[in-house]
Amino acid sequence: MDLIWRAIAEDVSRWTGEKPPWLMQLLFMLAEGDVIHLDGLSREMGGARERIEKALQAFAFAEMMDVLQPYGGPRRKRNYRKVIFLSPTFRWALHTLLFGGQREDRLEAALMEDLVGMILVRATDRSLISFLDGKAQIKPDFVLTTGDRPVLIEVGRGRKSPQQIVAYAENQKISYRYGLVISPTFRKPSWNRKNRILFLPFSWFLLV
User: Fold this and answer.
1) 10 Å Cβ neighbour count for 169?
2) CA spacing 20 to 30 A to 188: which of 25, 98, 126, 199?
3) pLDDT at position 76, please?
4) Which long-range contacts (CB under 8 A, 24 or more apart) does 90-93 make?
5) pLDDT at position 75, please?
6) What is the pLDDT of residue 103?
7) What does the domain layout of the chain look like in residue ranges?
8) What dihedral do alpha carbons 94, 97, 100, 103 form, nearest 10°?
């Protein structure tokens, strides 16, 4: 936590003009989940949306996190963002202070997404990585833009099936190049030819 506080007090606060306690409160709220609604978060924090966006930019500039835009072009980029902590230990430390040993399943899932998101951002052009926003409860976690058709990526702890990708793509009329499902429950890679989905062990993906 000392490292997080020092980054906020010495860098982020100076860049944004915000006081460290307000920035720390915002960081705790970001650590609770991944996808945020900017207007809703602004109301909860009691500040203008521009303050939130400026703070997110500063957190990203300090290399504490990356902030992904929604998939779908400029018309989709108004309200939602997805936060990826570039050091999963940051989320772990903040989450542990908030909840202690509770919500461990939720934390583990979030840490896995952080790791996958961090690798995707570092291994590709970050402008190619986005996420699927909206109200659907079941949807893939990341989108990798590849030409005219994207790759849909799902990350999870439990046993995964192709349905999360297939059902969402059909409902939203997305023609995807192929799907990638990453989970520690898989012992080896497998390929679902019918739905063009690769199932990959989480440990294998970490080798990228």
Assistant:
1) 19
2) 126
3) 54
4) 90/4, 90/31, 90/64, 90/65, 91/31, 93/1, 93/4
5) 56
6) 67
7) 2-107, 135-205
8) -30
